[in-house]
TrEMBL record:
Transmembrane segments: none annotated. This is Amidohydrolase. It comes from Thermocrispum agreste. PANTHER family: IMIDAZOLONEPROPIONASE, PROTEIN LONG AFTER FAR-RED 3. Keywords: Hydrolase. Residues 26-510 form the Amidohydrolase domain.
Length: 512
């Protein structure tokens, strides 16, 4: 591969390449594997960085583990500000008892503490944090002892955000972008919004993203009006999309379902927008030349979205609606008729394969919440792809880690037989499709062809594979003389590639 400036100018045999570029500087890769750089189509940069610096609760297996991790975190963090912790998931614990508020207060020494569930749609909090926003006690979703959800959670999350200093925010964003580059990620879609970060936060992130970092494509999750549209355009926001919540999450019992939760049979989840809201938003964004989009997980929420898009189509027309390249985040509970409607409207599904790896299967969290039969229908990647819906892969970091090869593998080895996609399709979803999802449809971004941006990653990888006509794979030699294009072996349990270098438009943004 030959590069001039920020552009690939040759891909092919060594001999012709050297003849065409006799004075080029050569960088021998010693058998390393080169791919387009990854795109993560759904992240929350500041929250991810703060969680990197805070207490990691993903390894906890019970209330006592959570409390022990909090005590250690309290010892190493200054008393001022909020202690941030993330990742508890009681659905995987032998005993699902959560720590009480009094136990949390004791563990953190009476300071404000904010402990998000792994899906970030509910949180355990300390008494001192509640005192920073006492009106949370009157909000929907308040609990005096257990996790706070819905509006009460949003109020307390805002209190945490206001306690974060600009210096902490900048350090968190820098840490996130650095970590993403080390994973071979060259572009992220930041899903900001008034319930998640703030205008100042997303503006700071966009300012920080330069030639030496992954590219940041920003979305703002707020219903459209003239002021919001104007500010979004001035900041360079790609769309009023991302986490504009129609509902919540399955793990927190806030995703909106058609039928009740199996483990909470008197509860269908929560709905934050109606079909009129959806329709008006899509129409306004379409006319303003911005992408519209929504966070939607439950099938009850999807019904609202489908009805809203149907009304929007009647107002702006099918062609204009399709040209808007709108998007939906997560889209976990969807059937073929709804998928066919999304394909007709040219709506992207921004999906997170690691959700299935973590919570799918007959004994996973999905089965606990929904029962095995309904759980087996979640995240139907193959059906979505077969109906023509563009799949863009992402992490929803900090919900799951920025780990694109692991996400590619999860998309292939779906925990429901027949719902996975081929390695090549999974890789495309995490590279080229990420650009298309953001409205970049030039045909070359996310590829390694002459004329494409010199944006790529170099990997230490083992055996390579090529997708065969059937679901199996054929293994090929990694001898460079074989010239067989391929992907690393993605079988569960095999080592995933290790990033050696990440390059964005000719500039190295990470080197091992």
């Amino acid at each position: 591969m030959a590069i001039t400036g920020d552009t690939i100018v040759w891909v092919g045999q060594d001999g012709p390449g050297r003849a065409l570029h006799p004075d080029a500087e050569e960088v021998p890769l010693d058998g390393a594997f080169v791919t387009p750089g990854f795109v993560d189509a759904h992240v929350h940069a500041t929250a991810s960085g703060l969680h990197q610096a805070g207490a990691d609760l993903t390894g906890a297996r019970g209330a006592q583990d959570v409390l022990a991790l909090l005590r250690k975190a309290a010892e190493r963090t200054p008393p001022e500000g909020v202690l941030v912790a993330h990742g508890w998931d009681e659905s995987a614990w032998p005993d699902a008892r959560l720590p009480s508020r009094a136990e949390i207060d004791d563990a953190v020494g009476g300071r404000p503490a904010y402990l998000t569930r792994i899906d970030v749609h509910s949180a355990l909090v300390s008494t001192a944090l509640v005192e920073l926003a006492p009106h949370a006690r009157e909000a929907d979703g308040w609990s005096a002892e257990g996790p706070v959800r819905a509006e009460a959670h949003h109020v307390l999350r805002a209190a945490v955000r206001s306690a974060v200093t600009p210096q902490q925010r900048d350090a968190a964003q820098h840490a996130f972008l650095t970590a993403a580059a080390a994973r071979g990620v060259v572009c992220v879609h930041e899903c900001a919004g008034p319930d998640l970060s703030g205008w100042e936060d997303v503006a700071a992130l966009l300012d920080k993203a330069g030639p030496g970092t992954p590219e940041v494509i920003a979305y703002w999750g707020e219903l459209a009006d003239d002021a919001v549209i104007d500010r979004a355009k001035r900041l360079g926001i790609r769309g009023l999309a991302g986490d504009l919540f129609v509902d919540g999450a399955l793990g927190s019992h806030t995703a909106r379902l058609r039928a009740p939760y199996q483990d909470e049979p008197d509860h269908n989840g929560r709905l934050y927008l109606d079909a009129d809201d959806v329709a008006e938003h899509v129409v306004a964004c379409t006319r303003a030349g911005l992408q519209a989009g929504f966070h939607v997980i439950g099938d009850g929420a999807l019904d609202v979205v489908i009805e809203g898009f149907t009304r929007a189509e009647a107002e702006v027309g099918a062609a204009a609606l399709a040209a808007g390249m709108h998007r939906l985040e997560h889209v976990e509970m969807i059937g073929r008729p709804e998928a066919e409607a999304l394909a007709r409207w040219n709506v992207t599904a921004s999906v997170q394969p690691l959700f299935d790896e973590l919570w799918g299967g007959p004994d996973g969290m999905y089965a606990q919440r929904l029962g095995k039969e309904r759980a087996a229908t979640l995240n139907p990647f193959s059906m979505l792809a077969a109906t023509g819906v563009l799949l863009a892969g992402g992490s929803d970091s900090p919900v799951t880690p920025v780990d694109p090869w692991r996400s590619v593998r999860a998309a292939v080895h779906h925990r429901t037989e027949g719902s996975g996609i081929s390695p090549r399709a999974a890789f495309t979803a995490h590279t080229k499709a990420g650009y298309r999802a953001a409205g970049v449809d030039d045909g070359i971004s996310g590829t390694l062809v002459p004329g494409a941006p010199a944006t790529y990653a170099v990997w230490e990888a083992g055996e390579l594979v090529v997708a065969a006509p059937d679901p199996r794979v054929q293994r090929w030699s990694t001898d460079p003389r074989s010239r067989v294009p391929g992907l690393p072996v993605l079988e569960p349990g095999t080592p995933l590639p290790s990033c050696l270098r990440t390059v964005r438009r000719g500039v190295t943004i990470y080197a091992a």
